[in-house]
């Protein structure tokens, strides 16, 4: 994949506004190629097959052993404002801790055009990302993380696996008082997020006290404060190169 050089300064400005949108395409291309590459490795011969899942989570799994190891790929263009990729899968999907998240930072050869180049990679446990997300966002009664409904009886394309975030909407003092009293009745761990059915029922009762709205910015990986991802972000944004534009851009972040 190659992005052609802009033909004018105006075209360069327009290109700078949209080039980060190549991240999903780049991520998909990497998924295809990595699965084919891994399947050619001798260490996996006779044990199983690497498969790309679309749709499905994670992006790639090793079919042949149980539990299935797998990985989810996220691509990040570091000259954009933040890591816009989201991670919404429930903690309940990581009980075996067999799925990793691979985040790839990339830039075109010439900053705005050329072939994409991977400049850094981080690999972290998917379970650790889900736990960091829920611990960061969940703050009852002001913000609630909710698990998906039980959809096991549905076909695979209709099964729900994602959590969602909800913000309280213009609560009255009385609503906040009642909400906090209810949370206190749950015991010392009442404000700590739990992906269990019992805790979700408690949250359902809490949401009946006040109005909550769905948060469309929920689960952005730039905001979940995961130690490994934060270190990766810092490392990438401190990168230097011999290209004067790239040095300036990465320094500004």
From TrEMBL:
**Disordered: annotated segments:** 135-166
Q: Where is the composition biased (Polar residues)?
A: 153-166
This chain belongs to the protein called Restriction endonuclease
